[in-house]
Amino acid sequence: xAVGQGIPEEYVAGFVRILDGVTASGRRAGRDExxxxxxxxxxxxxxxxxxxxxxxxxxxxxxxxLGGRITPDHVMAAVEQAVDAFAxxxxxxxxLAVRQEEAARxxxxxxxxxxxxxxxxxxxxxxxxxxHLAHAHAVAVARGPEQYEDTGRAIRRVEAALTGRxxxxxxxxxxKDGLLVCVAxxxxxxxxxxxxxxxxxxxxxxxxxxxxxxxxxxxGVVTSYEEARGALDLADRLGFEGPVLRAADLLVFPVLARDxxxxxxxxxxxxxxxxxxxxxxxxxxxxxxAYFDSGCVGAEAARRLNLSVRALTYRLExxxxxxxxxxxxPVQRYTLQTAVIGARLLDWPQRPL
Length: 353
What we know:
The protein is of the alpha+beta class. The protein has 14 helices and six strands. Strands 1, 2, 3, 4, 5 and 6 form a six-stranded mixed beta sheet that branches. A hairpin with a 2-residue loop joins β2 (about 170-175) and β3 (about 180-185). It is elongated and about 110 Å long. The N and C termini lie far apart (about 80 Å). About 30% of the residues are buried.
């Protein structure tokens, strides 16, 4: 049987008994009675009933029990006690449900990004969080000046902005190793672009965002996540400033780094002679890096190095004499530039090869 607000009688019956007792005897509600109200509030929350409807049902039961009589103060005090205890139990159950949901979400995120769970089971769990792993997904990773936290202001701000713009699209936000992670459908570039914008805004435009390529299936999420993390690693090793890096634009670098032995041989063969330069290889290597990063425009490279164009030209000529490779020759430039990239990937000359 349901009472007011469509609430089953079982959630209000104990409350009515308290009212009958305090009305007849003038006593206050007992500890056991209030504990029973807390337990009943927990059960109502677990059953999915909203607190507003439950409170309304309790007030309706109060009016019915009193039957229009003038209400003594002690009766209203008992009402206040009983309803407060009921609401406390309801809120306690809600907090527990939130913690359990967050724990399940965290476990799912870890399994999803690390690929350490049965794919069939992972796909079933993904539906609970709005993801359909049979489709392609892409992962974006944001790194800020400080580590992101699950309950931090930044993730709440980004989540609110994405939800407000895209509604209930399949977007999953979380943190991993101090990074902010966004998993989205592979055909929704606008979601990942918005994530990049909001993540940087949340870090006062000081962050760096990397976006992996879309890949199908649960394993595709892992692959895209690893690509995004790899792009951040390349940014550190090669000095990319971003603010947004796309793994699709950086595919040549993993290829170059795949054969370490061959790359080390190229670096030593082509750039090894720079060790005979004044001050060692570092000044000349920095000159080549600035020259290639500026699109081989001498004036721009000189500006980046705080040199005159004449001094830059002298350094390039010195490199040509030492290595036998001309940075200004289009054919020879490719070998020299590849060796410079290899030196940055292998952290040479800081680390011996």
